[in-house]
Every structure is written in C-alpha cells, then in structure tokens.
C-alpha cells in the first residue's frame, strides 16, 4: 500500500505518493481548487495511509477531511511540531510554536543532506523562511520575512502612485532572473520594485548563511524550496541545491521513521 503525502500551504495544495522509500512526482493546485484536488485523488489507488502538514487553518483541514471521507480514504495523520522527530530536535522553547511546514522541511533537509551535516532549509513562498539544523540534528532556530511577491504587493497597495500596474506577483524582473539575464539596476519603476524585492530576499539568504557558517564553523548545505525558489536562485551568491518538494520529502522521512 502507498502513503499519500499532502502539503497544504497558504497558496497551494501539493501532494505525492510515497511508494517504498521515495515520493513520486509532486502535483500542485491552488488552495482554492478543492474540487480539482478531489478529482485528482479519485485517480489514485492503493492508499494505505495519509500524512499531512498544513498551515492554511482549520477550514482547510475540514475540507481535506471531508474529501478523504467522501473518497473512503484513510483518515489523515496531521504532523504537528514536536520536541523531537526523525532525529531532529526542535530548537524552539515552545516546540508547538514552530510552524509545522518549517519543522517538516527542516527534517527533510537534514535527511537529504545525509543526516550528518548542518543544513539551511530555505523556503521562498508567500513568506521567506530559513531554518538551520546542525550536524547532530539540533534545530538552531530560523527567521521569517516577507517573500518577494508579498513585498511587491505591499508596495503597490500601500504606496500611492508608485507604479501604474495592479499589485501582483513578480513578472518581468522575475522572468529575467530566471533566464540569468537580470541587471543589477532597473530602468522603470515596476521592474525596480520587483528587482528590489528579489535582491532583498537573496541578500537576506546570503547574509544568514554566512552568519550560520561563522557560528557553526562549517559550511551548511543550503536547500532551496518553494514557489519562488527558481526566481531567487540566480541571484544567490550562496552555493545551494534546489528541491521543489522539500516538505513532501520531510513527510516521507516521517512516514518511514514512524512506520505510518
């Protein structure tokens, strides 16, 4: 039997099937498209358990439970932040205050690095988060900042007349960075906003990784994930790996470790 892995984020639902030790290809839909998600689940077979991490709140959890019940699938097992799990010790004084998605991503990153090296799990989405786990599995803490798209929306919504176009996600500057042709400065206001937001996010990541390296006395393995990872990657000075499904990778580790 397979394990269904589900990551309910602020903007997207992501899922994959765990067959044996490795999750299959990640699928994703908008958090608003519960009907599409239900149609996708109807096509899956031989699901023996369901592992979930969710940060979208109680309404999303209820929607998921209702879908699984209608499809006669197993009840979901929601992963919550805990003091210790899968070889990683939570660095928060109150373990439950660490976001479950960050906790699971940190576990996934540490195991992807082999379970013996320090890691920085960096997620670029609605929020930009960094979490550090040292070589012995101790979570050393992290930080949270607005993601690049959220920075853009904030400027466009809260500053009168700064740019003529409506608020949205990064566009032209993002496309340029994805093509590795981005310039250090923009020649129009909209691109200046987008480029400034991308550069601020990249600088935060680089500075944090540098500080972590000094603190730990070793270079951490930096694993980049999230919807904005591809856009940010060309701007980073830091050596890094990209993993589009880091949270699902963490869920897979937890499922294997707990026998779920």
Explained architecture:
With 260 residues, the chain is α/β, with parallel strands linked by helices. It folds into two domains: 2-78, 2-Layer Sandwich (Nucleotidyltransferase, domain 5), CATH 3.30.420.40; 115-245, Nucleotidyltransferase, domain 5 (2-Layer Sandwich), CATH 3.30.420.40. It contains eight helices and 13 strands. It has helices spanning 34-42, 58-70, 100-112, 148-158, 172-178, 189-216, 229-232, 246-258; strands at 2-8, 12-19, 22-23, 27-30, 47-54, 76-78, 84-85, 88-89, 119-124, 127-133, 139-146, 221-225, 241-242. The strands form three sheets. Strands 1, 2, 3, 4, 5 and 6 form a six-stranded mixed sheet that branches. It has a five-stranded mixed sheet with strand order 11-10-9-12-13, with helices on both faces. α3 packs across α8. The chain is globular and about 55 Å long. The protein starts with a strand and ends with a helix. Residues 165-171 and 174-181 have low confidence and may be disordered.
Assign the CATH class of the largest domain: Alpha Beta
Q: How would you characterize the largest beta sheet?
A: 6 strands, mixed
Q: Choose one word for the global shape.
A: globular
Low-pLDDT runs of 5+ residues are 165-171, 174-181
- Class computed from helices, strands and strand pairing: alpha/beta
**Ends distance:** 11 Å
Rg (C-alpha, Å):
19 Å
Tell me the quaternary state. single chain
Domain tally = 2
Listing every helix as H and every strand as E from the N terminus to the C terminus, the arrangement reads: EEEEHEHEEEHEEEHHHEHEH
Write the CATH fold name of the largest domain. Answer: Nucleotidyltransferase, domain 5
Number of E-state strands: 13
Q: Approximately how much helix is present in the residues?
A: 25-40%
Count of helical stretches: 8
């Amino acid at each position: 039997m397979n394990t269904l892995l589900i990551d309910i984020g602020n903007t997207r639902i992501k899922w994959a099937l765990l067959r044996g030790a490795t999750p299959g290809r990640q699928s994703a839909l908008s958090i608003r498209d519960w009907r599409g998600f239900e149609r996708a689940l109807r096509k899956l077979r031989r699901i023996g358990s369901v592992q979930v991490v969710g940060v979208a709140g109680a309404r999303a959890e209820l929607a998921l439970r209702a879908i699984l019940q209608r499809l006669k699938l197993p009840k979901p097992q929601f992963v919550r932040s805990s003091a210790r799990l899968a070889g990683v010790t939570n660095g928060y004084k109150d373990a439950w205050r660490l976001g479950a998605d960050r906790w699971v991503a940190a576990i996934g990153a540490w195991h992807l690095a082999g379970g013996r090296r320090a890691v920085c799990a960096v997620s670029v989405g609605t929020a930009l988060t960094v979490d550090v786990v040292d070589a012995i599995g101790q979570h050393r803490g992290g930080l949270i900042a607005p993601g690049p798209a959220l920075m853009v929306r904030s400027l466009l919504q809260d500053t009168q007349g700064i740019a003529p176009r409506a608020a949205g996600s990064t566009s032209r500057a993002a496309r340029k960075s994805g093509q590795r042709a981005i310039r250090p400065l923009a020649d129009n206001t909209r691109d200046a906003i987008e480029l400034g937001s991308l550069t601020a996010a990249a600088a935060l990541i680089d500075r944090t990784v540098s500080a972590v390296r000094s603190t730990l006395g070793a270079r951490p393995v930096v694993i980049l994930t999230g919807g904005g990872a591809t856009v940010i990657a060309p701007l980073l000075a830091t050596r890094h790996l990209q993993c589009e499904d880091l949270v699902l990778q963490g869920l897979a580790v937890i499922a294997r470790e707990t026998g779920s």
